[in-house]
Amino acid sequence: MNQASVTSQFPVTDRVRHAMAVSLRGVEELIPQEDWLKKLARSDATGQPLRVKLGLDPTAPDIHVGHTVVLNKMRQLQDLGHTVIFLIGDFTTMIGDPSGRNTTRPPLTAEQIKANAETYYKQASLVLDPAKTEIRYNSEWSDPLGARGMIQLAAKYTVARMMERDDFKKRFAENRSISIHEFLYPLMQGYDSVALKSDLELGGTDQKFNLLMGRHLQQEYGQEPQCILTMPLLEGLDGVEKMSKSKNNYIGIAEDANTMFAKVLSISDDLMWRWFTLLSFRSEAEIAALKKEVEGGRNPRDVKVMLAKEITARFHSPAAADAAEQDFVNRSKGGIPDDIPQVQLSGAPLGIAQVLKQSGLAPSTTEANRLIEGNGVRVDSSQVSDKGLKLGAGTYVVQVGKRKFARVVLS
Questions:
Q1: Under 8 Å CB-to-CB from 2, ≥6 apart: which residues?
Q2: Is pLDDT above 80 for 217?
């Protein structure tokens, strides 16, 4: 097949329209939508499932809930009957993905990659249906490519086009180093789509350049080009940076139920709605109704508990989520008075030391940091150990020692 686009003219049935609506829910971009609709129509008419690809590099042993934004979409497409390919980038991890970085990512050793990869699929199977998932490693076709194949692949893209990529452009302008091997990363990720004959590739918004590369290379190799679907990046616990293992603002889906539940409850009230949209399986109408209730006076903590229980139950069980809620309630009752002073602060996100100082719980930021170092500070009953912690907009019970409390309303 040597086509630049999908040319089939199959009927757009109600099933196809439903599949398109499922595909579009919560997405950032679907490119090009017209081609995806045609692919769906062809699949519906012929009974031939589409091949849907997601690649993850095993840079650390745990998948976090930020990854599940894309995995949830994969599960939705899987439930529509399409073939889901969970691709572990054991080869590309040795290069290091430069996406969104202003420095070269240090490569991992083969041993580290293997150790991390062993846990990846097991964790992803908590979201995907293992019986309907094709698991692949890109070393299958990348290693045999060899030096000759790599040169031939590199000939299919220009340096000028590669330098249009934002992170490369910025680093070049700032005179920061760019290693030649980093140019190979998007080429190899794109070649994965050629090897797998992908119809659709999913990723975060930071992966758009790499996803489009796959589309370009498929055309170069005479294949029908894949469509690309990007999902929004989930902000981490701090509500500022994207969820990331390296920034330690994540919830690993293999974490214990009590920790997972407490971490969800630690997010700000504003961030809660973003998480509902990207992580909850509730309908958009249900989420809108909950938001209206909160605007009408319902305690946002009640709704946040619902989110925490849903996420915890997904990766553990409903019983574990109930037990985690009870554990949190028991810990939160640990000496917190019913009537504590309320303090209004602005400037979110605000560093924890400033929160302590401005709320009157510490005389200075120096003393605040000393209290944190001494394990004497708690936020919503969780001990604070990171002096760099920033609190987003929301309401928090902040505790110093056993007797000093403040309900901090941060905007």
A1: 222
A2: yes
On whether 39 is known to bind a ligand per the annotation, the reply is: no
Question: Which pLDDT tens digit goes with each residue over 13-24?
Answer: 999 999 999 999
Strand ranges (DSSP E) for 165-278?
Answer: 200-204, 227-231
CATH architecture of the domain with range 336-411: Roll (3.10)
Residue 356 half-sphere exposure, CB side, CA atoms within 13 Å? 27
Cβ atoms within 10 Å, residue 185: 22
Q: Kind of pairing, strands 350-351 and 200-204?
A: unpaired
Residue 164 makes CB contacts below 8 A (sequence gap 6+) with: none
CB within 8 Å of 267: residues ≥ 6 apart: 237, 239, 275, 304, 392, 394
Whole-model pTM?
0.69
Q: Where are the domains of the chain?
A: 14-231, 255-332, 336-411
Residue 13 region by backbone torsions, left for phi larger than 0, else alpha for psi between -120 and 50, else beta: beta
304 CB contacts (<8 Å, ≥6 apart)? 264, 265, 267, 269, 272
Structure tokens at 188: 């190899």
Which pair of tokens denotes residue 382? 């969780």
Question: What class has domain 255-332?
Answer: mainly alpha
CATH fold group of domain 14-231: Rossmann fold (3.40.50)
Residue whose entry in the numeric block shows the structure tokens 């554990």: 327
**36-62, pLDDT tens digit by residue?**
999 999 999 999 999 999 988 777 667
The band of 2, judged by pLDDT with boundaries at 50, 70 and 90, is very low
- Centroid of chain to Cα 19: 23
